[in-house]
Amino acid sequence: MSLPREGEVRIPSGCAVSGMFSKSGKRMNGEQIIRSIEVMHDRSNGLGGGFAAYGIYPEYKEYYAFHIFYDDSSTKQECERFLERHFDIINLSKIPTRKMPQITDVPLIWRYFVTPLPTKLAESQLDEREFVAKCVFHINTRIKGSYVFSSGKNMGVFKAVGFPEDVGRFYRLDEYAGYCFTAHGRYPTNTPGWWGGAHPFALLDYTVVHNGEISSYDANRRAIEMYGYKCTLQTDTEVIAYIIDYLHRKQGLNWQEICSVIAAPFWQTIAAMPEQERAKHEYLRNVFASQLITGPFSILVGFNGGMMALNDRLKLRSMVVGEKDDMFYVASEESAIRVIQPELDKVWSPRGGECVLVTLEGGKA
């Protein structure tokens, strides 16, 4: 008897998010982010946990790191044939894990460092990142039993069914070092837990962890699929990741503008703005109306060289930010920050719709 898939059952919601970022690019091991998300254990119910980590593959930083779940070895062979036809595979291996009784029904979990084959890239007439994204969607929609859950450079997603602290230790996250980590503890809103449905959701180097429920999901999904994206997981957070990719990579919006699209000010707020600012927000609301996200949410977006935190415009989900020296912290609860950094220089709660953005000093780790 198979487990219910995404969208087949409704379960009440909770969820927790946490993130930490070194503005100087100092690399830290993953134990701190595990301790942070563990404090919010009661916000999760064991149906999903996960982490995104940046700066963890410096020796392969020029290559795309594909993390892939497989149902079985025959599916793995089919996917690897596809990868060999489209990429130069620099290195491949199982992702190291440790056996834990709390983590069960483990799929095959493999990692590939790849770069597009020049002939295939030229033949496609696409830029490199678009070529990689299309290959990810091909695997996830056409090779049944294969799921690419991470595909960026010098970063990786690690997720599973379980409580997040168990997931972090299962993946031996304490053995990785990065300048940025985000984490999620899942208490699903509408869907059962399965490995692909855990957060973070990722495409290329963009990752999203999310607490809340997107009431505009169906409208957002139908709109984003017009631009070639495939929402196969029937979960609202997936569509946020694709909206971020579309607005930033394809449309060239900056992060402040992206916040003004997905958590747009109300029309009456825009009407009261100075003329130049009002014109900009009117343009964003009109042109990108289908990317407006409604419903309660707090999200953390990771990307190479930075992290963004955002609440819905009514601030219906909690989010707290803290700073200490060059370190930036954000979490659903202040306790999740103070457990790893008791003494903070500054702590505050962002306003609804306020874009909180942190980037590396000098632009690179």
TrEMBL record:
<keyword id="KW-0315">Glutamine amidotransferase</keyword>
<feature type="domain" description="Glutamine amidotransferase type-2">
    <location>
        <begin position="15"/>
        <end position="361"/>
    </location>
</feature>
<protein>
    <submittedName>
        <fullName>Glutamate synthase (NADPH) GltB1 subunit</fullName>
        <ecNumber>1.4.1.13</ecNumber>
    </submittedName>
</protein>
<dbReference type="InterPro" id="IPR012375">
    <property type="entry name" value="Glu_synth_lsu_1"/>
</dbReference>
<dbReference type="GO" id="GO:0016740">
    <property type="term" value="F:transferase activity"/>
</dbReference>
<keyword id="KW-0808">Transferase</keyword>
<dbReference type="Pfam" id="PF00310">
    <property type="entry name" value="GATase_2"/>
</dbReference>
<dbReference type="GO" id="GO:0004355">
    <property type="term" value="F:glutamate synthase (NADPH) activity"/>
</dbReference>
<keyword id="KW-0560">Oxidoreductase</keyword>
<dbReference type="InterPro" id="IPR017932">
    <property type="entry name" value="GATase_2_dom"/>
</dbReference>
<dbReference type="InterPro" id="IPR029055">
    <property type="entry name" value="Ntn_hydrolases_N"/>
</dbReference>
<feature type="active site" description="For GATase activity">
    <location>
        <position position="15"/>
    </location>
</feature>
